[in-house]
Amino acid sequence: MAQTEQPGAASGPAEVGPVVAGPALRAYQERLQAELDELTVQAEELEQAANANTAEGSGEVGFDEEFSDAGSYTFERERDLSLSNNARDLIDKIGRALARIDRGTFGRCEACGNPIEPDRLDALPYATLCLEDARRRVRLR
Ligand SMILES: [Zn+2]
Fold first, then answer.
1. Which residues, in sequence order, are CB contacts of 113 under 8 Å at separation 6+?
2. How far is the CA of 11 from the centre of ligand 1 (A)?
3. CA distance 139 to 28
4. Exposed / middle / buried, residue 47 (Cβ in 10 Å: 0-12, 13-18, 19+)
5. Which residues surround ligand 1, an ion (CB under 5 A)?
6. Distance of CA 85 to the CA centre of its chain
């Protein structure tokens, strides 16, 4: 019981309305958009690399000595696809965070409706859960 209710924020159930607003919200929006652009380029490059690895004998692969046996083709391709899937995953999360900015629900926990901790949001702008709910979800797995 370290924290008591904050004066002024104590009336009624969880407040409706943006948790983050004004310049802070715009800063998040710009940050997310920049990250989205970067990841989109990365994902495309990785997918192209993965596809290039399947195009045998195209001569444009660039790491010829690495591809002297078939095993490394597969490995490189798998790795590129896995990285591009990670990037796509993150792109998805960031896209949803940007949509939440538009809807005014950005920064609010999707499970309990409370604001997500500012430190957490700063570290993970696409977080959809407050720390407590995120921990709970991890334990459930
Ligand atoms: Zn929560």
1. 14
2. 19
3. 29
4. middle
5. 109, 111-112, 130, 133
6. 12
Interval between CA 21 and ligand 1 midpoint (Å): 19
Distance 105 CA to ligand 1 centre (A): 13
CA distance linking residue 86 with residue 43, whole number of Å: 9
User: In Å, what is the CA distance from 66 to each residue of 51, 61, 72, 73?
Assistant: 16, 10, 7, 8
User: In terms of pTM, does the model score above 0.90?
Assistant: no
Summarize pLDDT for 42-61 with one digit per residue, the tens: 999 999 988 887 765 444 44
Is 82 within 8 Å of 88 (Cβ atoms)? Answer: no
Q: Domain limits of the chain?
A: 21-55+63-105, 107-141
